[in-house]
Every structure is written in structure tokens, then in C-alpha cells.
UniProtKB/TrEMBL annotation:
Residues 108-274 form the D-isomer specific 2-hydroxyacid dehydrogenase NAD-binding domain. This is Dihydrofolate reductase. PANTHER family: 2-HACID_DH_C DOMAIN-CONTAINING PROTEIN (PTHR43333), D-ISOMER SPECIFIC 2-HYDROXYACID DEHYDROGENASE NAD-BINDING DOMAIN-CONTAINING PROTEIN (PTHR43333:SF1). The lineage of its organism: Bacteria, Bacillati, Actinomycetota, Actinomycetes, Catenulisporales. Transmembrane segments: none annotated. SUPFAM superfamilies: Formate/glycerate dehydrogenase catalytic domain-like (SSF52283), NAD(P)-binding Rossmann-fold domains (SSF51735).
Length: 309
């Protein structure tokens, strides 16, 4: 007997050739009225940015699937769907699928800021020769706030620059301090890379006090979620203490036209493009295929989400 898997629209092709015990169908337009709703055991929800195009509420859909056992996210962070997953239903992410993509972008952002590339782009647009002093990454102290697989990849990519790594995470371990060490470590760091999941504990983690603890002129890099940073506090720190920032995520997002963050001094923004590459789906569904195979065979899945992330 086959197991019914509902997957987001437009994604079934990435699951061709799976174990014959898995029957993969795309989520119907009106899933709550579908006669097979009670048969669904595995759900692969749409990306959060695509949910607004759907005619159903994700929480209601999950609550209505009486046989649901496993929810597989298409993202590394699950803050957008974890609230909707019923108690007792397994939730897994694709953590690791985008590590290299994110690391490349964050390193590019660091170099862009240190070498004042936005200044020179504007100068070239104006056909103006305006040299200014730039900074050197070599020997910098880099503090990773959230030391998971992406942070480890960034650390490897920065190693040739001879930087010194400082690390904090939710749980202390060998070579990694707990978040409580931030007041001690922030004043030492030239570059602070935020890569924590978004939870109640990390929402607005980078607040006025956090930013005030950073060196004047230090660089904040946010590759986590926009809501991990207090936007108003960052704008104030940029204006008053010369804190610089490279942000691939913002709060709010998309960042509205005319928002003061766009023009904050020393802030460089990309519009959440960390995983926006041609083979995005291939990378994502490589992990999903592996997890579906593991699940149907009764083996532990990869990236099981516990304690909300």
C-alpha cells in the first residue's frame, strides 16, 4: 500500500523516481475539500514567500490531515512553518543544502564592505574618480553568533585571510561559547556574523545593547533572519557609532521603498539572494529525496527539528 505525499505545486518533478511506496501528488487547489485529505501522511509545504498565492491556510491544512506523520520543509530555517505543525508530527529541514551558497555570499558581502565597493559603484555611475581608504580583512577577529554548518563553511572560506574565529551558540561546547558570552566577545570582534535560527530567544537579539557592545566601525553581517536584528537600533548605531552592516535579510522584508535602512551609512543590502541560484531546487530536493527514502524505510531522517529549530 502506497503512502500519500503531498508536495508544493511545481515541485513533484523533483521527486520523480522515488521509492514506489511513496505516491507523490502536488497539493490540490482546494486541499481542505479534497477527498484524499485524510490519507496524507507526508506534507512538503510551499516556501513561505509562495504561501500567499495559495487559497488555504497552512495551519488549517495540517490540522485537517488526520493521518499526517511527517512535514518536510524546503528551507534550512523553519520559523515560517514550525508554528503550524501539529504536536507529535515529525518536522525536518534541508539544513546543509545551501551552506556553500550562503558562505559565498557572506564572504562577498564582507569583502564588499571592507573594500568600499558600494562607494566605487556610485562613483563609477557618476564617472567620478574618488579614491578613499579601504580596510583589510587579514587578521580580523570574526565572531560567529550561531555556529552551525553555514558558519563553519564561512569560517573555512575566510581561513586563507588569517582571521581569528570567535564562536557562540545556543549550547556551549568545545571551542564554542554560549550566548551568555556575547558581552565579553562583542567588544573584541571586527566582524560579527549572525547565523542563528529565528526563535523567541533570538528575535531582536541584535538590539541596542548588542550593537553598543560592538567596536565602533565594526561590521555586522546578517545571514539569518531579518527579525534577529532590531532595525531601528541598527539604523541608530550606523548613524551614531559607525557600525557597518551587510544584510541579506531585513525586517521588514521586502524592505519598502524609501525605508531609512536603505540609506543608513555603511549598510549594504542584498534582497535575500543567498540561495537564489539556478540549481536551488536540485540542492534542496537532494536532501528531501534522501529524507523521504529514510522515512519510508523507517530510518532516522536528516535535520530533524527539535525545540523549534
Amino acid at each position: 500500500m502506497s503512502v500519500l505525499v503531498w508536495t508544493a505545486r511545481g515541485t513533484a518533478k523533483w521527486l520523480d523516481g522515488l521509492d514506489e511506496r511513496l505516491e507523490v501528488l502536488e497539493i490540490p487547489a482546494d486541499p481542505l475539500a479534497d477527498p484524499r485529505l485524510d490519507e496524507v501522511k507526508v506534507l512538503i509545504p510551499p516556501l513561505m514567500r509562495n504561501l500567499q498565492d495559495e487559497a488555504y491556510d497552512l495551519r488549517a491544512l495540517m490540522a485537517a490531515t488526520g493521518s499526517l506523520e511527517f512535514v518536510q520543509a524546503q528551507t534550512a530555517g523553519v520559523d515560517g512553518i514550525v508554528h503550524a505543525v501539529p504536536h507529535g508530527v515529525l518536522l525536518s529541514s534541508v539544513r546543509g543544502a545551501y551552506d556553500e551558497l550562503m558562505a559565498e555570499l557572506l564572504v562577498a558581502g564582507i569583502l564588499t564592505s571592507y573594500k568600499s565597493i558600494p562607494h566605487y559603484v556610485r562613483a563609477q555611475d557618476e564617472a567620478s574618480w574618488r579614491p578613499e581608504e579601504v580596510r583589510v580583512v587579514q587578521g580580523a577577529k570574526v565572531l560567529y553568533v550561531g555556529y552551525g554548518s553555514i558558519a563553519q563553511c564561512v569560517e573555512r572560506y575566510l581561513a586563507p585571510f588569517g582571521v581569528e574565529s570567535l564562536k557562540v551558540a545556543r549550547t556551549a561546547r568545545d571551542g564554542v561559547d554560549a550566548l551568555e558570552a556575547l558581552p565579553r566577545l562583542l567588544p573584541l570582534a571586527d566582524i560579527v556574523v549572525v547565523l542563528t535560527p529565528l526563535t523567541s530567544a533570538t528575535r531582536n537579539l541584535v538590539d541596542e545593547r548588542f550593537l553598543a557592545s560592538m567596536k565602533p566601525g565594526a561590521l555586522l553581517v546578517n545571514g539569518a533572519r531579518g527579525a534577529c536584528v532590531d532595525t531601528d537600533a541598527l539604523i541608530a548605531a550606523a548613524r551614531e557609532r559607525g557600525i557597518r552592516a551587510f544584510l541579506d535579510v531585513t525586517e521588514p522584508e521586502p524592505l519598502p521603498d524609501g525605508h531609512p535602512l536603505w540609506s543608513a551609512p555603511g549598510v549594504f543590502i542584498t534582497p535575500h539572494i543567498g540561495s537564489l541560484v539556478a540549481d536551488n531546487n536540485e540542492r534542496c530536493f537532494r536532501v528531501i529525496r534522501e529524507n523521504l527514502t529514510r522515512w519510508v524505510e523507517g530510518k532516522p531522517v536528516l535535520n530533524r527539528v527539535e525545540h523549534g529549530y
